[in-house]
Amino acid sequence: MEHHIVKTPMPHGLPPGEAIAMHLTSLIREYAGWSGRIVAQIIAEGQADPAVLREFRERFHYGRRAVLREMLEAWRSTARIPVPSNIETLGELLYAPVYMRLMLGNGPLDNDFAREHISYVYRLLGVEAPDILIAGEPKKKQKPAPRKNAAAAR
Question: What are the boundaries of each domain within the chain?
């Protein structure tokens, strides 16, 4: 479980808007796989067992939320993005659609969703979505050209 935290870091050394976009993209990619299924199961189990949910929040969620809040504060001070008085609300706006898809399966957690979601939120904030949204995208395998069989070629 700790492995998924390592694979979804908040990059440092980038402008805050780019770092947040990279973090969200890596989170979406990670949650699209086995780690996402485990997270969904833990959250679901936590609905019946508050101790499980508390443990999840303490071990994973609170730290991630704090790092995001720091980055949002930095972004607000450098780019003058409009944020609610409680900056946590913006963090929830960024994460909620990811968790909705994770828990309900109402849409894929894929690169198209990452680009669409991040671009839309950034547009609401009045800033351009960074070009890095396509960085690190796995290359799509091209299908080989169909072979013509000897009978069809005649």
Answer: 15-130
